[in-house]
């Protein structure tokens, strides 16, 4: 593992990643994602971005067989990296939503999704009825300036009782405040009986860092975490 920054990452890749995370407003960020769509998969390969693989493996581990008929919603699906990983593990009924039309176009070209819809999470409801999905994934989008942690009840709404939710976030310095807020929200929903935590796994080598400040000292990588929750089968009473 190369130490020091840039860690062999092309400057253009670093700049594109940084721009999206820095994007000031939501419309601005969605525009950046639209423009990034064509090179996104090459860039994340350079980053050694492992979240889609780690998330799909964790969900498959928790998920009871059979998988082929299970209906899954891939939220912030991007170009379909999570779908590839889920498909490899026997999941066949995949729906995706994303806020970027450019990303959805790439996802459509994979042929892995039965249904794809444009949806800006945090601003609008998911285009699905209540208790519709056996599992919901949000991989890579729960982060500072991206999808707010206030979307958790909406993710739960579309999940069947007993269904699974697979969420990831980064543990790098600029995302720690968001991660803390997310964990408070996750814990509140657990205490209220909405869901049960099955897994919270910290992963040291999540992806290559784009700067020295963000990197775990001496590694050139940032760390991240995969959470798996199961929606409680008995309806919970809203607090307050």
TrEMBL record:
Superkingdom of source: Eukaryota
InterPro entries named among the record's database cross-references: Methyltransf_25, SAM-dependent_MTases_sf
CDD domains according to UniProt: AdoMet_MTases
Domain Methyltransferase residues, every copy: 73-163
Protein's UniProt name: MET27 protein
Top-level taxonomy: Eukaryota, Metazoa, Chordata, Craniata, Vertebrata
Gene behind this protein: Mettl27
């Amino acid at each position: 593992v190369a130490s020091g920054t840039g860690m062999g990452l092309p400057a253009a890749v670093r700049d594109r990643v940084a721009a999206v995370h820095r994007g000031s407003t939501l419309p601005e960020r969605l525009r950046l994602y639209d423009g990034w769509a064509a090179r996104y998969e090459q860039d994340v390969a350079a980053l050694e971005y492992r979240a889609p693989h780690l998330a799909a493996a964790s969900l498959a581990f928790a998920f009871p067989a059979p998988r082929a008929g299970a209906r899954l919603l891939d939220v912030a699906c991007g170009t379909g990296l999570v779908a590839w990983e889920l498909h490899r593990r026997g999941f066949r009924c995949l729906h995706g939503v994303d806020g970027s039309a450019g990303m959805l176009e790439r996802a459509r070209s994979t042929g892995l999704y039965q249904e794809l819809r444009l949806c800006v999470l945090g601003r609008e409801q998911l285009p699905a009825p209540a208790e519709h999905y056996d599992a919901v994934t949000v991989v890579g989008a729960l982060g500072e300036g991206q999808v707010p942690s206030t979307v958790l009840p909406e993710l739960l709404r579309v999940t069947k009782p007993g269904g699974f939710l697979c969420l990831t976030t980064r543990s790098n310095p600029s995302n720690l405040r968001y991660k803390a807020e997310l964990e408070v929200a996750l814990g509140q929903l657990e205490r209220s009986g909405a869901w049960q935590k099955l897994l919270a796994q910290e992963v040291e080598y999540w992806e290559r860092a784009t700067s020295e400040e963000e990197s775990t000292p001496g590694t050139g990588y940032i760390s991240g975490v995969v959470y798996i929750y199961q929606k409680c089968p008995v309806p919970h009473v809203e607090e307050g």
